[in-house]
Write a structure and sequence with these properties.
The chain is α/β, with parallel strands linked by helices. It has 2 domains: 10-296, TIM Barrel (Alpha-Beta Barrel); 311-378, no CATH class. It is built from 14 helices and 8 strands. It starts with 9 loop residues before the first strand and ends with a helix.
Amino acid sequence: MSTPVKTFARRGIVEGFFGPPWTMAHRRAIFAFGAARGMNTYLYAPKDDPYHRKRWRLPYPRREWQELLRLIRAAQRHRIDFVYGFHPGEGLCFSTDEPVRILLKKAQRFYDAGVRTFAVLFDDIPSRLSHEIDRKRFKNSLAAAEGTWLKRIIESQPAAWRDVEWWICPSYYTPDPLLARIFGAFEPQFLETLGEYLPSETACLWTGPAVVSKTITLAHVRAIANRVRHPLILWDNYPVNDLSMSDELHIGPLRGRDPRLPEAVYGYLNNPLLQEELGFVPLTTCFDYAADPRTYRPETSWTRIVKRRFGLGALAHWHAIRNFCDRNQRAKQSKQALRLSTIELTRLKAASRYLSGHRREKWGTEIRVWRNLIQAALR
């Protein structure tokens, strides 16, 4: 009988949200904080870095490149694998050679800096090929085009790059109907077709049963791994709060993740909150889960980090703030008015005074929107 896998080979963060990217100082702080809690991987993929997505073909200007170099070195000092993500999918012609050359030329600069893992991300683009030449060559299959493109990149990379690992985020990264509503219906058997064309060593990113998954089970990831037939990396969209979630604050502990996921999953990465300081709390629970899923206890993890960052005396206030954010989110989703009990209102009044007393701190500035919502609920 084989011994159950204790944890994931890859653990850490995918900075993959829409909105202002994290500051370089905060990224370095996260490296130190996360490395002490088992983080070993960081995927750089902020949607609003123009040289990652909109202007991916262009090299980073000198100032931006020097900042990235310092960040890469900081990751290396903490033994964190810095993974650079390319986002070339928008308008890409898969049949032409030039984009492959451009990507590899840009990747060479990162390789020379010590980066050994790259990701090619095709998330959040139209579900159908946009060029006639591609439609003919790949028989209208976006999955075949994406898998073939990764194969061409790997076959075209310098011969000396024998130590490089490639990942892909396919356009179909969850069965959530939301994806098709936004980007169009996906071809049947997308994952099976992708797996057929994708080089065997390429890992595939996946968000779970939904874009933002409430639960992720071992049965689910095993079924996906069997379909794509490649190593699976979970891109977990918790605690991220971009786009339609921008009025939400996910500061509770990570829940709903099967403790047995490492048995079928190669990597586990969390997409973080946009608010840098507030994000330490939920991210800590994600780190604790990833480090040892079988012993992870959500409330224990959450209580420990709140007491450490804010003090024992603030614990009741953070419980009230968290409860309000959760209740407010559920009210928004159900389109019903928020109703709070007398006890909840009493606790919220104390929490409101606490927040007002810390409004000049960085985290106090970050939580201002929700402080105002609390004050409005108390009127």
